[in-house]
């Protein structure tokens, strides 16, 4: 395995881990239907970061970055929609 292959493998593993990081929170929110402990400010900052990563991936033509961060964006949009739905007024 050459250094380029190792670099790609590390990038894929890191991207999968990062992209999956909010899945447990989303699962918990779906099960409990309670969102009082979810910070909307954190989600806004996360949207900004993930959006920048997607743009960066497009500029670099790096599909690993584009796909993993697009997946993260979808998970975080779902999390935000459900958090708004389940937050007590």
Keywords:
89 residues; 4 helices; elongated; single chain; mainly alpha; Monooxygenase
- Contiguous runs where pLDDT drops below 50 for at least 5 residues: none
Global outline: elongated
Binned, the helix content reads: over 70%
The count of DSSP E runs of length 2 or more, i.e. the number of strands, is 0
* Major sheet characteristics: none
Count of all domains: 1
* Head-to-tail CA distance between termini: 55 Å
In the CATH scheme, what's the topology name?
Monooxygenase
Task: Tell me the β content.
Answer: under 5%
Going by helix content, strand content and strand pairing, the class is mainly alpha
Quickly count the helices: 4
Give a structural overview.
This protein has four helices and no strands. The chain is an all-alpha fold and 89 residues long. It has one domain: Up-down Bundle (Monooxygenase). It starts with a helix and ends with a helix. The model has no long low-confidence stretch (mean pLDDT 92).
Explain the layout of strands and helices:
Layout: H1 3-20, H2 23-32, H3 40-60, H4 63-86
Helix pairs in contact: 1-4, 2-4, 3-4
Task: Give a quick precis of the structure.
By secondary structure, the chain is mostly helical.
